[in-house]
Amino acid sequence: MAEKKESLLGGFRAFLMRGNVIDLAVAVVIGAAFTNIVNSVVKGIINPLVGAFGTKDLEGYSSCLKDPCRVVDGEMQGIQIQWGLVLSAILSFVITAAVVYFLMVLPMAKILAKRAAHEKAKEGVQETLEVSELEVLKEIRDHLVSQRGPVNHTAVTSKTGGGTGAHSTS
């Protein structure tokens, strides 16, 4: 039973120490902080700008479906649709998506494309080096063979004392 607990705890510890979990935790924290910035921009700048063209800030816009919307004895009378609040949330989403795309996704895609092109070029150079090395070795072999002249197998076998030391150069 103690071994099973240790293996469960060990597995859980290994899971927590994996890079993916830590990266995800950092992303969540940064995302939360970034959300606060975007919400502040929408509430502090965009909503008042929209309100400058209307009568109030964006989140205050609403419509009433039933009866005139008014507060009576602390309760809202009628059915109020707060479409300004929804529009504000949509603007927050669009701004967040635009910032993430243009400041994070697009530059990272360009960096990865450059890296892939560099790796591909590197592979092409490596293949060229391998081919040129092979060509140089063939030229050296051919040059050595031409310096030796025609191979006379009987002379080689008589010097080595039998056919055991003879070998072909091709």
Describe this structure in words.
This protein is mostly helical. Helix content is 74%, strand content 10%. The chain has four helices and two strands. The chain has a two-stranded antiparallel ribbon. A hairpin with a 2-residue loop joins β1 and β2. α2 crosses α3. It is elongated and about 115 Å long. About 5% of the residues have low confidence.
Topology at a glance:
Elements: H1 2-17, H2 19-53, E1 63-72, E2 75-81, H3 83-148, H4 153-160
Antiparallel strand pairs: 1-2
Helix pairs in contact: 2-3
Instruction: Report the sheet-strand fraction.
Output: 5-15%
Q: Tell me about the largest β-sheet.
A: 2 strands, antiparallel
User: Which oligomeric state applies?
Assistant: single chain
Helix content: over 70%
Alpha plus pi helix count: 4
Widest sheet, order of strands: 1-2
| Unreliable parts | 155-163
Radius of gyration based on Cα positions:
39 Å
Q: What separation lies between the terminal Cα atoms? A: 69 Å
Which structural category do the helix and sheet elements fall into? mainly alpha
Report the count of strand segments.
2
Mean pLDDT: 76
Order of helices and strands: HHEEHH
The outline comes out as elongated
